[in-house]
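Lab channel / #folding
Pinned by the channel admin:
"Please post every new chain as: sequence first, then the structure tokens as a reply. Keep commentary short and put observations after the output so the thread stays searchable."

First post following the new format, from NK:
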Amino acid sequence: MIGSFFFLKESLTTDGTWLFILGSAQLLIKPLIKLVSLIHVGRVYNRSNQR
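Reply from TO:
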């Protein structure tokens, strides 16, 4: 949200762009952690069923 306010003043546009990029990266982190967790649990589950 701070990035949005930075776009109101032309001298802060570059900083606002970087804040948007960082915010977008943070929004990707949680789904990536969830995906890695699901893959891990699936592998552990498959190993326990093969025994």
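NK: The radius of gyration is 20 Å.
TO: also worth noting, The mean pLDDT is 90.
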